Amino acid sequence: MSNTSLITHLRFVGFAMPQLEEQRAFYSKEWGLTEVTEKDGVYYFAAEGSPEPYVLRLRKDDKKRADVISFGTASRSNVNLLAELLKLDGVKVIHEPCELSTPGGGYGVRFFDLDGRVVEVSAEVAPREHRELASGESIPARLSHCVVNSPNPQATVDWYEKYLGFRVVETLHIHGRTLMWFMRCSHPQHHVFAVGNGPHVAMHHVSFDMRGIDEFLRGVGRLQRDGNELIWGPGRHQTGDNAYGYFQDAAGNTVEYTAGMSQLDDAWKATEGDLSDPAVLDVWGTSNAWGEHVMRSHFNTPDEGLFVAPPL
């Protein structure tokens, strides 16, 4: 295993919150995921176009938190080598590499990152039967990426580079301050993970890829017609070249419909973007303005589960 080829993709994100039933209804009836199973109070949701057994898991808790962020790797030997490196450097491992009992099984390890988030890396997860989405079908095809907030963003970026092999492909700046670090894994997708410069540790947003731009716009419109507030969008970021439309789920986490993200070849070089240029945020010029309302949504509320492992 080379460190820079460790992570192949983002598998799933887990949330815990008091409003479990409201969350289940939002993600299945509004957002367009498929609730596939429940086990020990955890509900698992798949994206119809994805081979992952699930891309989202929900659990009821008195406190709101991001339960776990899970990444894929190519082999169980990668999992073992990662665990050895983590333990050698004193990183707190939640559970040693083991067979997983979650849908799809597999072999994985869990640990805390620098900020106290729970991270899982797994291999040999059995794929789910999935299908090609039809033209015009405005539901998520797959999980695209997630972004976290950190009050110590550069240290968090360095941590993910060191242990998980992520590489910074682009940073966004304004008035001399860096606000965002976009990071790629071994997959050519522009980014599957990013770190935002935030006031506290929290999930910034979780993004779901649509079949195409038409389906993206249909999805944004459908959610608005159903009474969901469009926080920001529809537009197209210069960073990653992806379309964006941001909403909030029933617990106040920001979630995104996206489409069209760029793929990087072997000749890619890290770039910088200046947020004082409005085209960096939205090359189309169709979105509502980026401002305090958008930033409040993206900052989210402080994660209440840091350095505490979820029960499942």
UniProtKB/TrEMBL annotation:
Pfam families: Glyoxalase. PROSITE patterns: VOC. Signal peptide: none annotated. This is Oxidoreductase. InterPro entries: Glyas_Bleomycin-R_OHBP_Dase, Glyas_Fos-R_dOase_dom, GlyoxalaseI/FosfomycinResist, VOC_core. PANTHER family: GLYOXALASE DOMAIN-CONTAINING PROTEIN 5, GLYOXALASE FAMILY PROTEIN. Residues 9-124, 142-260 form the VOC domain.
